[in-house]
Amino acid sequence: MTLGRMSRPPVQTVAGALLLLAGLAFLVGCQGVSAGPSTRVVVVGQLTLSPASKAFGSVPLGTQQSQTVTLTNSGSSVSVSQVSVSGTGFQLSGITTPLTLNASQSTTFTVAFAPQTTGSASGTVTITSNASDPTLTIALSGTGTATAGQLSVSPTTLALGNVVVDTSGTASGSLTASGASVTVTAATTNDSVFSVGGLSLPVTIPAGQSVPFTVTFSPLTTGAASATLSFSSNAQPSTTTEALTGTGTPAPTHTVNLSWDASTSPNISGYNIYRAAYSGSCGSYSKINTVLNTSTLYTDSTVADGTSYCYAATAVNSSDEESGYSNIVSKVQIPAS
């Protein structure tokens, strides 16, 4: 008997079947529902600072300048464990740790600069937390400057009264420095009929001391006049002002002629003449001669019509020593017209 030849199953067919089964198994696995644990997404808190840096500018020694900083959380709850400041002269206040900031919550705190020395200074505020950026910083800067003094003027309004047109009248004031020495560099008025004198500029006034000055009023027309006297200095503020007032009056139609006996004291250089308004009694005397009068005669041509006056004279020797008033002439009446 002849045996027939047996054929072997093709290997390709078996392999193809195995691949198909594997593919079905893969599809079934993909379409099935997983019974394993689900994945949780955690949103980490995020802190921001506003502003991101602080510049204090120039701050005088002995003073302090403060600014506010805002800390905001834009994520989940954040725990702030520490807030600190470094740098000479910088200070921190208004915040206590540990501190919890919930989502969208903000808090503010204060950073101050009180310079200890002149010159530039820098520092840093550092915030430590469990936020996405665990360390936040703010750059700080400032400049310490020499303590600025203050300059005051007295009186605040200087009244020069009635002055005859085309003549001049003067009044005195004073400047006082406080806190620190002040250097005055300029003194100007905004009306040329008022001028300032008696100061040699620039002049440095030590703290607690004063210097005098004079203002001259030289009206060109009749009527009231006013102006502002401005002093420029290195004080704080840098400009100090004084109000000036005066009235130009018509030339008088009357004069008062004065004469007196010469002083018998030795070394007499001349005489000063004083005048006061009279209203029931003699008022406060003011010197009316602008230079020392070397004779025993004087004509007062600055009297106002309808006014009464008192007059006195003093003697001045070569050592610039001045005597007391002479006999006083009272109630010298000037006619009204």
From TrEMBL:
<keyword id="KW-0969">Cilium</keyword>
<dbReference type="GO" id="GO:0005737">
    <property type="term" value="C:cytoplasm"/>
</dbReference>
<keyword id="KW-0963">Cytoplasm</keyword>
<dbReference type="Pfam" id="PF22544">
    <property type="entry name" value="HYDIN_VesB_CFA65-like_Ig"/>
</dbReference>
<protein>
    <recommendedName>
        <fullName>Fibronectin type-III domain-containing protein</fullName>
    </recommendedName>
</protein>
<feature type="domain" description="Fibronectin type-III">
    <location>
        <begin position="236"/>
        <end position="337"/>
    </location>
</feature>
<dbReference type="InterPro" id="IPR036116">
    <property type="entry name" value="FN3_sf"/>
</dbReference>
<feature type="region of interest" description="Disordered">
    <location>
        <begin position="232"/>
        <end position="251"/>
    </location>
</feature>
<keyword id="KW-0966">Cell projection</keyword>
<dbReference type="InterPro" id="IPR003961">
    <property type="entry name" value="FN3_dom"/>
</dbReference>
<feature type="compositionally biased region" description="Low complexity">
    <location>
        <begin position="239"/>
        <end position="251"/>
    </location>
</feature>
<dbReference type="InterPro" id="IPR054090">
    <property type="entry name" value="Cep192_Spd-2-like_dom"/>
</dbReference>
<dbReference type="InterPro" id="IPR013783">
    <property type="entry name" value="Ig-like_fold"/>
</dbReference>
<dbReference type="InterPro" id="IPR053879">
    <property type="entry name" value="HYDIN_VesB_CFA65-like_Ig"/>
</dbReference>
<dbReference type="Pfam" id="PF22073">
    <property type="entry name" value="Cep192_D4"/>
</dbReference>
